[in-house]
């Protein structure tokens, strides 16, 4: 029995747009952090340490560029892009949780978008393949 394409496929397109948005957010915040000379105090097992923000900037910049590229590929309906994007979104969730003490509101906004993207890709991702082909 062939499964039909439902209206939920729009959520995957919305998820792809959100992935592009999250990727652009990461690129912007990554560029700001890379060129920033700020240092942040953080607690570690050995006490207080000074963390260079530019290191996390490179992580956000690279992750964001990959997310933008995958967001564009998602519009083709490729299954590999869906699963790769899901992995990148989970990695971005972890990066945003680590960044919560530094940029709490920005990180929370990106976390919410990440959850929406993950839900759309996992729950309704197969419908995009059927809609495109």
Automatic annotation (TrEMBL):
Keyword vocabulary terms for this entry: Membrane, Transmembrane, Transmembrane helix
Membrane-spanning segments: 12-35, 55-75, 80-99, 105-123
Lineage top rank: taxon: Bacteria
Signal peptide: none
Protein name as it appears in the record: Membrane protein
Residue ranges of domain DUF7144 in the record: 11-125
Presence of the UniProt keyword Transmembrane in the record: yes
One Pfam family hit: DUF7144
UniProt KW Transmembrane keyword: yes
InterPro entries recorded: DUF7144
